[in-house]
Design a protein that fits this description.
By secondary structure, this protein is an alpha+beta fold. The protein has a domain of 56 residues. Helix content is 18%, strand content 26%. The chain is elongated and about 80 Å long. The relative contact order is 0.22. The mean pLDDT is 82.
């Protein structure tokens, strides 16, 4: 096998500035939780489809903060609506 001519030992990795990450760091962070309100007549418990966390709505008008990752799955639950 041939030698690399000592170029490998002379190699120094360069850690350059990446514009893509700089642009992302200026973007506002997504909220960690979102609020949903329940407008049904009885109590409701829903399991978050992503986090697996259980959310308990005590009755009509109850508002609960949920993990933002679970929000898309909550939109299909009857009588639940996102509070803006």
């Amino acid at each position: 096998m041939g030698c690399c001519g000592k170029n490998r030992s002379a190699y120094t990795p360069q850690y350059g500035y990446n514009n893509r990450f700089a642009a992302e760091s200026n973007m506002p962070a997504a909220p960690l939780t979102v609020t949903f309100q329940y407008n049904g007549q009885s109590a409701l418990t829903v399991a978050g489809p992503v986090s697996g966390r259980r959310y308990r709505f005590a009755g009509f008008g109850a508002q609960v903060e949920i993990d933002s990752r679970d929000a898309p799955g909550m939109r299909g639950v009857p009588y639940l609506q996102r509070v803006i």
